[in-house]
């Protein structure tokens, strides 16, 4: 599945794959550069992934808790999140797929993963080109 997060041309695209059927102000405190503050706007990661129709078992409310989310940037950086972190019924982390930073569109660069709860932007990913939702890993024996 290919999905564009913005309507302007040219746009960066990302691949949203795996077990699916279909503005915020953030401050980062960093030990090396102090507090960095930027304004990001874009959809919540949960909303984008939920709209894609993750392959949850509807008969089991907690089935979604076994799903992992892998995010990859064009520069090779990766981040891993659990569905429970972003789900409003559980962790409710306001993880953003930013399409603008400081009112500047990220059309050419691609969206950014913004986790305001992380210290020093630890899982901040620029130029996202792939998101994989995975609930098929083998359970522990």
Structure description:
- The protein is mainly beta and 141 residues long.
- The chain is 8% helix and 37% strand.
- It has 2 helices and 11 strands; from the N terminus they run ββββαββαβββββ.
- It has helices at 45-51, 83-86, and strands at 2-4, 13-18, 24-30, 34-41, 68-73, 78-82, 96-98, 100-101, 104-105, 112-114, 128-134.
- It has a 5-stranded mixed β-sheet with strand order 1-2-11-5-6.
- The longest helix has 7 residues, at 45-51.
- The chain is globular.
- It starts with a strand and ends in a 7-residue tail after the last strand.
Keywords:
5-stranded mixed beta sheet, 4-stranded antiparallel beta sheet, 141 residues, mainly beta
The overall average pLDDT, rounded, is 81
Q: Radius of gyration, Cα only, in angstroms?
A: 15 Å
Low-confidence runs: 1-11
Kindly state the percentage of residues in helix: under 10%
Strand percent estimate: 35-45%
Class by alpha and beta content: mainly beta
Give the biggest sheet: 5 strands, mixed
Q: Specify the number of helices.
A: 2
Give the SSE order as H and E letters. Answer: EEEEHEEHEEEEE
Strand order of the largest sheet: 1-2-11-5-6
- Shape by Cα distribution: globular
Distance between the termini: 33 Å
Number of distinct beta strands:
11
